[in-house]
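Discussion board: Methods & Data

I've been asked by a reviewer to show the raw model output for two of the constructs in my manuscript, not just the figures. I'm not sure how much to include, so I'm pasting the format here to get opinions. Each protein appears as its amino acid sequence followed by a line of discrete structure tokens. Is this the kind of thing reviewers expect to see in a supplement, or should I convert it first? Here is construct A:
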Amino acid sequence: TFAIFMVCVATWSSTQALIGTWRDPSLWLTIARIEHYGHVFIPSVFLHFVHAIIGLRQPRRLAMSYAVSVICFLLVPTHLLIRSIDLNGVAKFALNAGPLYLPYMVWFVGTVVEALVKLRRAIIAQSQPFEKLKLKYIFWATLIGYAGGMPNFLYVFDIDAYPLIPFSTYL
């Protein structure tokens, strides 16, 4: 599951980097939508990875999360998730949220926080020093990664957080 998680993150980050490099801004919306095809699976695959690494068996919870990812995947090409894209001065572009982007963002952040809380609880409960250390590294690495990526949601809602964005993405 970690490899699939990394493919989703790579899809998001590589297309995030590509959007502003294309000379033709008319392609930026298409690239932003391609970006979200990987983006919508990040929380579900991360939750699945955490369940696998800590040995937690909650197939219904995972199925529910993947169902939301699939629904969001189907919404990516519509204006319900991403309405349009605008040019701006700081990051060159900004997505304009569709009516379902806020619920999508809340689900995304909530699922990631749930996974991190489960991982943190597993660290506390772990008695073997090596396993505890491994889980700590995973926890801190993913927490730092998400802390760097989450500010990207702010531009979608027209919140300028410069210099946090775009530089936090490089974290």
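Construct B, same format:
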Amino acid sequence: SGGLNCFDQESGRFTVYKLRDTGREKLESDDIKAIFVDKRNGTIFVGAHAGGLSRVDRHLGRLSPYDSDTPNPLDVYALAPAPQGRVWVGTLEGLKSFDPGTSVFTSCDYDADGNPLSDWSVRTLLNDSAGRLWVGLERGLEVFDTSSGSLKALDLFKACPELEDAFVQCL
């Protein structure tokens, strides 16, 4: 039925958190696309198509949206840890960096040299051990070097000529 279903091992019961229970009229769905647990403090971040970015508020028993002032919530498809306690947010509107302390989203659609993402429909994110962020797109794969701020598009068709398309759904 949509939403986020959290299982409690001790009680053997599920708690269901729904975006629609936040009172926001603009939400179109409880279509959860991404979950990220911040290991530093246990915060559970939830991303949804047409639902934006929320966190699980266990005390209120609901999802609390971060972008509640936005008339049209972001289409969030991917979440990953970012430097300095931030969260990478992959959306159909591009790559964002989110600061949970200030609730501010920063657009990261361009690298330090002004080169844009080749496609703004971010579908998946992955941090590697070298400190790079791999960005899977509807039309390709890019690597963002978080230390230098450089962005590099990879030619998937050159690497694998058998590919029918460059849609990267999961990393």
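Answer (T.O., handling editor elsewhere):
This is acceptable in a supplement if you add a one-line summary per construct. For B, something like: Helices lie at 156-159.
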